Amino acid sequence: MQQSMQIEIIKELLDHLDNKRTADAGRIVVNPTSTYTDKALAEREWEAFFKNHPQVLGMSGELPKPGSYMTMNDFGVPILATRDEHGQFHAFVNACRHRGAELTTEAHGDKNRFTCPFHGWTFANDGRLLGVRQSDQFGKIDKNCNGLIELPSEEKYGLLFVHPQVNGTLDIDALLGEELAAELAAWELHRCEYQGESVLDKPLNWKIANDTFGEVYHFNSLHSNTLANLLHGDTLSYKEYGRHHRLCLANKYLDIMRQQPEEQWSLPYAGAVAYYLFPNVQIVFLTSMAVLVRIYPNRKEIGQSLSRVSHYRVPQVQQFVPPADKVNAVTNENIYDATNTSAPMDLDVSAVLELFVSTVEHEDYYMGTKTQSAANSGKIDHFLFGRNEPALHHFHNNYRSALGMPPLEEYRGG
Ligand code: FES
Ligand SMILES: [Fe+2]
Asked: Which ligand is in closest contact with the Cα of 213?
């Protein structure tokens, strides 16, 4: 993100902090709990947002060089994504053209060709069928017509996109909109280095999982012993971009940074920046790490979802260098004990990531499973979204609008 924009947002966060304000949705709304339990609705959302909607497979760094590949099967189509010898990204259906076996089940790896484990047909990483074992048994098979089935795909702004339908339309600029596209471009995500992945398969609907990333109101209670020691709860900068939005949270190191010259300010050190891409993607920047979260419904069990959390190092992020007298040793063990006289510079990125995932799993998603149980009970017919939870208003209204449902009703007391 451009430095001028970072300074603008940091000033907004400081203003919020100093005046005890936060982002304001301007209204309170009611969200029916059937959103999280209705099977017919789940079928409609699957068709609209997963089966027939562009999906983010990862950041460019997940396929770091020619020959890199990765697989996944999260939205109804087994995917084999590759980077061919020319560096071109492809997304194929991970199914052999003989009788459909998966070519590989490895999550990540390096290979220029894939030999099917079933009967040994071989394919290049650009999809061409190279070899048919005992080919005389298949007569005059046309290799040009029996390559891997390729899906529409595009690598843009450092993200890997695919459309799950062969005839689907992938227009990334139309999908993101001009303003968000420019902002994402400025983050130079193509330079993020892939570090690994955590997968959380939990008993909560994907939208409840999504909701946990949409507000900071819970920080001072649910995360009182963890994230709230690092980030200010109840302080939020919020911006919408069509169906997408951006949250900026205030880090306690902001209290050190405010004493420094503006040209040294760095938003990922002043807080956390979280982009939400409709319907199921979060990109979170915190210090020099980035986390990409994608949340998928479980088609058999509406109250279950899978979150794929990919970790990256962001090499180009501007480091915030605090004054020497403010630098206390913040170790991996006491990261959450950091006070506003400590600096984040000593933090091991992998430790931050581990704590991020552990907090999401043991606090956010744990609470989400309780929320799901309440919805499942049928005894609570709605949840409330307060004025301080604008991202929840935004997501659910967009979700409803896309499915032809009326907007969330305003809560008028009672
Ligand atoms: S299914 Fe792949 S070679 Fe038979
Ligand atoms: Fe949380």
From this structure: 2
Which backbone phi and psi does 96 adopt, to 5 degrees? -65, 145
Nearest CA to ligand 1 atom 1: 99
The burial class, CB within 10 Å (0-12 / 13-18 / 19+), for 192 is buried
The owner of tokens 């990333």 is 213
Mutation test residue for ligand 1: of 116, 137, 143, the one with most atoms within 8 Å of CB:
116
Q: How far is the CA of 212 from the centre of ligand 2 (A)?
A: 6
Of 96, 129, 130, 149, which is best to mutate to test ligand 1, by the most ligand atoms within 8 angstroms of its C-beta?
96
Please state the length of the chain.
414
**Residue extents of the structural domains in the chain:** 3-52+177-410, 55-156
Q: Residue-wise pLDDT tens for the chain (414 aa)?
A: 888 889 999 999 999 999 999 999 999 999 999 999 999 999 999 999 999 999 999 999 999 999 999 999 999 999 999 999 999 999 999 999 999 999 999 999 999 999 999 999 999 999 999 999 999 999 988 989 999 999 999 999 999 999 999 999 999 999 999 999 999 999 999 999 999 999 999 999 999 999 999 999 999 999 998 888 888 889 999 999 999 999 999 988 888 888 888 888 888 888 889 999 999 999 999 888 899 999 999 999 999 999 999 999 888 766 666 665 554 434 434 444 444 344 444 456 677 777 889 999 999 999 999 999 999 999 999 999 999 999 999 999 999 999 999 999 999 887
Is residue 99 in contact with ligand 1, taking CB distance under 6 Å?
Answer: yes
The answer to whether the CB of 96 is under 6 A from ligand 1 is yes
Q: Which fold has domain 55-156?
A: Rieske Iron-sulfur Protein (2.102.10)
Nearest ligand by distance to the CA of 135: 1
Cα distance from N-terminal residue to C-terminal residue, the chain: 44
Q: Which fold has domain 3-52+177-410?
A: Naphthalene 1,2-dioxygenase Alpha Subunit; Chain A, domain 1 (3.90.380)
Q: Which atom of ligand 1 is nearest to the CA of 120?
A: 3
Burial of 374 (0-12, 13-18, 19+ CB in 10 A): middle
